[in-house]
Amino acid sequence: MRTESIDNRTDEALRECLDVDRPVALLAYDYAAGDRIPIHEHLKAQLIYAIEGTMTVTTQEGRWVLLPTRAIWVPAKMRHSIRMRSRLRMRSAYFDDTVAGPAQGCAVVEVSPLLRELIISMLSEPRAYPPNGRAAHLASLICNELRFTHTLPLHLPWPRDPNLRKICEAMQRRPSLAGGMDFWAAEMGISSRTLARLFRSEFKMSFQEWRLQLLLLEAQIRLAQGQSSSRIAKALGYDSHAAFSAMFRKSLGLSPSHYLRNLRLEDRSSQ
């Protein structure tokens, strides 16, 4: 089977993962902040996971934010690309069609401390492992643990309409409250009413609801990177830290400081 070239640093190991006749195969590689993996697809399903760092995964369904202790399930033949938001240590697992995933489509899932250790342990095993040896038992445990993972709402829906996609890409490059619907409608050369209708037809949500989801995901990434909530509030265009904190608490049920504290506890428990 001929596989598509993704990254010449990992292509050979990737071919082994995709060609090996085993239910599970693991691939490890470290990336620098700003690195990108271009759009591609695999004949096997993939669990994209980083034991350190943050990344954004893009598919035709949307954009998916991965923070520490979380991974994304990507079904077989789903085209996707990856952008590293920080220095990143990726540990990806590939699954053949005998393995049931946690969701029908793409989904962000929690990585339990057990699943993390199983993935790390299996990296030291040969990819063409004996069918009754230690690696086979690890693979079975990984597949079983995958069945009990919880999916998380870390998804930004993405438009199919090319004109709306340009606007969403521009908004994601500069996520901010600045520039309302009238501003972006003028950028597209259409009326605000038409732009509102496009958002409703593409996403079943309003312009304001989509932008809020964008800002929430960006805020979570920046908190995971160690930025202060006051700095994030300013970068995202909020008039005050209090206004940003109120939005964050209303949307996620806890303040930015409590969210960060929980994130650190999760990360510490997985180490």
Describe this structure in words.
This protein folds into 2 domains: 11-152, Jelly Rolls (Sandwich), CATH 2.60.120.10; 160-270, Orthogonal Bundle (Arc Repressor Mutant, subunit A), CATH 1.10.10. The chain is 43% helix and 21% strand. The chain is built from 10 helices and 11 strands. α2 runs antiparallel to α3 (134-146) and α8 (229-235) crosses α9 (241-252). It starts with 10 loop residues before the first helix and ends with a helix. 32% of the residues are buried.
Throw out a few tags for this protein.
single chain, 271 residues, Arc Repressor Mutant, subunit A, 2 domains, six-stranded antiparallel sheet, 21% strand
CATH superfamily of the largest domain: Jelly Rolls
- Count of beta strands: 11
What's the helix-strand series? HEEEEEEEEEHHEEHHHHHHH
Structural class by sheet pairing and helices:
alpha+beta
CATH 2nd-level architecture of the largest domain: Sandwich
Strand order of the largest sheet: 1-8-3-6-9-10
Distance between the termini: 37 Å
Major sheet size, sense and barrel closure: 6 strands, antiparallel
Secondary structure: elements and pairs:
Layout: H1 11-19, E1 24-31, E2 36-40, E3 45-52, E4 55-59, E5 62-66, E6 70-74, E7 80-84, E8 88-95, E9 107-110, H2 113-122, H3 134-146, E10 151-152, E11 155-157, H4 162-173, H5 181-188, H6 192-203, H7 207-224, H8 229-235, H9 241-252, H10 256-270
Antiparallel strand pairs: 1-8, 2-7, 3-6, 3-8, 4-5, 4-7, 5-11, 6-9, 9-10
